Amino acid sequence: CAARGAGPPGHALVARLTRGSESRSDEVLAIALHRAGARGVSPEEFRARQALRAAATAGAAAVLAGAIFSSPIAAVVALVAGFVHGAASARSAIERAATERAERLRLELYTVNQLLALHVRTGAGPIQAVQRIVDRGRGVIVEELEDVLNSVRGGMGETEAFRRAAALPPEPAAARTYALFAAASERGSDLAPALRAL
User: Cα dist. 43→25, 26, 39 in Å?
Assistant: First the structure.
């Protein structure tokens, strides 16, 4: 990205440009990006893209205002307004994506919980059941479950991986499913009836 190529001065410039419109910490922004399905986009990359979008909007607004009003003051006002609008629209796009993702989670969750319950009833453990769904399925829930498996493969405990997943999704029902798996991994409780109840 542009800021990364510019090194520390580029990072500092991006931080200054986006401070007013994107005041969330890296941790909070990372969760927002995850909820929006922006996999692989770091908070730093998002801020750089936001700054570029804001700068492009600001430049276009300034040129247009300067051409229409033939006034430097109008161009400066349009520049500031365009920057604020561009930065805010980048943030709004993330929020819209998170809302759409939550809806998809809701639509997929019932079927996935039924399939997980079926696998658990046939003797699969929590991770085995999740692996079977990931191997055969597609969709937002499958992506979330694949992240859990990747965390476990990376050395994280099953309970911790499911708890982490429960803290991230934009849909409360999905969080309840992951929390249920965390409890089952920790205590060995019967998952199937609880999954069907969900």
Answer: 9, 6, 11
Say if CB 113 and CB 195 are below 8 A apart.
Answer: yes
Exposure pattern of 65-78 as b/e (b: 16+ CB <10 Å)? bbeeeeeeebbeeb
DSSP sequence for 64-118: HHHHHH--HHHHHHHHHHHHHHHHHHHHHHHHHHHHHHHHHHHHHHHHHHHHHHH
Q: In the structure, what pLDDT confidence band is assigned to residue 2 with cuts at 50, 70 and 90? A: very low
The closest alpha carbon to 176, from 187, 185, 163, 166, belongs to 166
| Cα distance between residue 144 and residue 171, in whole Å | 12
Three-class DSSP category at 25: coil
Cα 54 to Cα 25, 59, 82, 119, distances in angstroms = 19, 9, 7, 49
CB 129 within 8 A of CB 120: yes
Confidence of residue 134 (pLDDT cuts 50, 70, 90): very high
- Please report, to the nearest 10 degrees, the dihedral formed by the alpha carbons of residues 192, 120, 129, 147 taken in order: 20
- DSSP state, residue 170: S
| Gap between the terminal Cα atoms of the chain | 43
Counting residues of the chain whose pLDDT is more than 90, the rounded percentage is 10
What's the pTM value of the predicted model, to 2 decimals? 0.63
Distance between CA atoms of residues 114 and 146, nearest Å: 18
Q: How is residue 90 written in tokens?
A: 């980048």
